Protein backbone atom coordinates (compact mmCIF):
# COMPACT_ATOMS: atom_id res chain seq x y z
CA UNK A 1 0.00 0.00 0.00
CA UNK A 2 2.68 2.53 1.05
CA UNK A 3 6.12 2.70 -0.49
CA UNK A 4 9.40 3.87 0.93
CA UNK A 5 10.91 6.70 -1.14
CA UNK A 6 14.46 5.45 -0.41
CA UNK A 7 16.28 3.06 -2.70
CA UNK A 8 17.49 -0.30 -1.44
CA UNK A 9 21.02 1.16 -1.30
CA UNK A 10 19.80 4.09 0.81
CA UNK A 11 18.09 1.70 3.21
CA UNK A 12 21.25 -0.42 3.47
CA UNK A 13 23.31 2.68 4.32
CA UNK A 14 20.80 3.65 7.03
CA UNK A 15 20.78 0.12 8.41
CA UNK A 16 24.59 0.18 8.58
CA UNK A 17 24.59 3.47 10.52
CA UNK A 18 21.86 2.24 12.87
CA UNK A 19 23.76 -1.00 13.50
CA UNK A 20 26.92 0.97 14.31
CA UNK A 21 24.88 2.94 16.88
CA UNK A 22 23.36 -0.28 18.25
CA UNK A 23 19.85 0.66 17.07
CA UNK A 24 17.78 -2.24 15.78
CA UNK A 25 15.40 -0.70 13.23
CA UNK A 26 13.46 -3.96 13.12
CA UNK A 27 12.95 -4.10 16.91
CA UNK A 28 9.40 -4.38 18.18
CA UNK A 29 9.58 -0.99 19.92
CA UNK A 30 10.48 0.68 16.59
CA UNK A 31 8.83 -1.37 13.87
CA UNK A 32 6.38 -3.62 15.67
CA UNK A 33 3.23 -3.50 17.72
CA UNK A 34 4.97 -1.78 20.64
CA UNK A 35 6.28 1.12 18.50
CA UNK A 36 5.29 4.63 19.49
CA UNK A 37 5.98 7.79 17.60
CA UNK A 38 8.22 8.88 20.49
CA UNK A 39 10.39 5.73 20.30
CA UNK A 40 10.71 6.15 16.53
CA UNK A 41 11.59 9.84 16.94
CA UNK A 42 14.23 9.10 19.60
CA UNK A 43 15.93 6.54 17.32
CA UNK A 44 15.78 8.90 14.32
CA UNK A 45 17.22 11.77 16.38
CA UNK A 46 20.08 9.62 17.63
CA UNK A 47 20.95 8.63 14.05
CA UNK A 48 20.63 12.26 12.88
CA UNK A 49 22.94 13.55 15.61
CA UNK A 50 25.54 10.89 14.82
CA UNK A 51 25.47 11.75 11.10
CA UNK A 52 25.71 15.47 11.89
CA UNK A 53 28.76 14.94 14.13
CA UNK A 54 30.47 12.78 11.52
CA UNK A 55 29.87 15.27 8.70
CA UNK A 56 31.21 18.13 10.85
CA UNK A 57 34.31 16.12 11.79
CA UNK A 58 34.97 15.04 8.17
CA UNK A 59 34.55 18.54 6.71
CA UNK A 60 36.76 20.06 9.42
CA UNK A 61 39.50 17.58 8.50
CA UNK A 62 39.19 18.55 4.83
CA UNK A 63 39.51 22.25 5.72
CA UNK A 64 42.61 21.59 7.82
CA UNK A 65 44.19 19.56 5.02
CA UNK A 66 43.92 22.60 2.71
CA UNK A 67 46.50 24.33 4.91
CA UNK A 68 49.49 22.18 3.98
CA UNK A 69 51.97 25.06 3.57
CA UNK A 70 53.44 27.34 6.27
CA UNK A 71 51.17 30.30 7.02
CA UNK A 72 52.12 33.93 7.69
CA UNK A 73 51.82 35.26 11.21
CA UNK A 74 49.10 37.94 11.33
CA UNK A 75 51.47 40.27 13.23
CA UNK A 76 54.95 39.87 11.73
CA UNK A 77 54.18 37.88 8.54
CA UNK A 78 56.84 35.27 9.42
CA UNK A 79 55.94 31.87 7.91
CA UNK A 80 54.96 29.39 10.59
CA UNK A 81 54.42 25.64 10.40
CA UNK A 82 50.82 24.43 10.48
CA UNK A 83 49.98 21.73 12.99
CA UNK A 84 46.72 20.00 13.70
CA UNK A 85 45.01 19.80 17.02
CA UNK A 86 41.78 18.13 18.06
CA UNK A 87 39.19 20.11 19.96
CA UNK A 88 35.72 19.18 21.18
CA UNK A 89 33.03 21.42 19.79
CA UNK A 90 29.46 21.45 21.05
CA UNK A 91 27.02 21.58 18.15
CA UNK A 92 23.28 21.29 17.74
CA UNK A 93 23.86 17.59 17.07
CA UNK A 94 25.99 16.97 20.14
CA UNK A 95 29.73 17.09 20.73
CA UNK A 96 32.00 16.71 17.70
CA UNK A 97 35.76 16.28 17.84
CA UNK A 98 37.12 18.55 15.15
CA UNK A 99 40.64 18.86 13.82
CA UNK A 100 41.74 22.45 13.43
CA UNK A 101 44.88 24.07 12.11
CA UNK A 102 47.05 25.95 14.57
CA UNK A 103 50.34 27.79 14.09
CA UNK A 104 52.82 29.13 16.60
CA UNK A 105 54.98 32.15 15.84
CA UNK A 106 58.17 31.93 17.87
CA UNK A 107 59.01 35.53 16.94
CA UNK A 108 55.78 37.01 18.35
CA UNK A 109 55.32 34.18 20.86
CA UNK A 110 51.71 33.68 19.94
CA UNK A 111 49.45 31.03 18.53
CA UNK A 112 47.11 31.76 15.65
CA UNK A 113 44.52 29.80 13.77
CA UNK A 114 44.85 30.19 10.00
CA UNK A 115 41.79 30.08 7.80
CA UNK A 116 41.38 28.59 4.35
CA UNK A 117 39.52 31.70 3.22
CA UNK A 118 40.12 35.38 3.68
CA UNK A 119 37.92 37.30 6.05
CA UNK A 120 35.91 40.09 4.50
CA UNK A 121 33.34 42.44 5.87
CA UNK A 122 29.78 41.46 5.14
CA UNK A 123 26.47 43.08 5.98
CA UNK A 124 24.84 42.03 9.21
CA UNK A 125 21.15 41.42 9.00
CA UNK A 126 19.06 41.94 12.11
Summary, kept brief:
With 126 residues, this protein is an alpha+beta fold.
Strand and helix layout:
Blueprint: H1 8-20, H2 28-31, H3 37-65, E1 71-72, E2 79-80, E3 82-91, E4 94-105, E5 110-112
Antiparallel strand pairs: 1-2, 3-4, 4-5
Helix content: 25-40%
Order of helices and strands: HHHEEEEE
Largest sheet: 3 strands, antiparallel
Quick one: overall form?
Answer: elongated
The domain count comes to 1
Task: Give the tally of β-strands.
Answer: 5
What proportion of the residues form beta strands (DSSP E)? 15-25%
**Rounded average pLDDT:** 85
Low-confidence spans: pLDDT under 50, at least 5 residues?
A: none
Kindly, what is the distance between the CA atoms of the first and last residues, rounded to a whole number of angstroms?
48 Å
Helix and strand content put the structural class at alpha+beta
Amino acid sequence: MFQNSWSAEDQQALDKIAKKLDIDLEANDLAGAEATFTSIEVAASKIGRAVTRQVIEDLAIKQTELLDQPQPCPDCQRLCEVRGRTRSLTTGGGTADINEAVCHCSECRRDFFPSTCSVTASPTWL
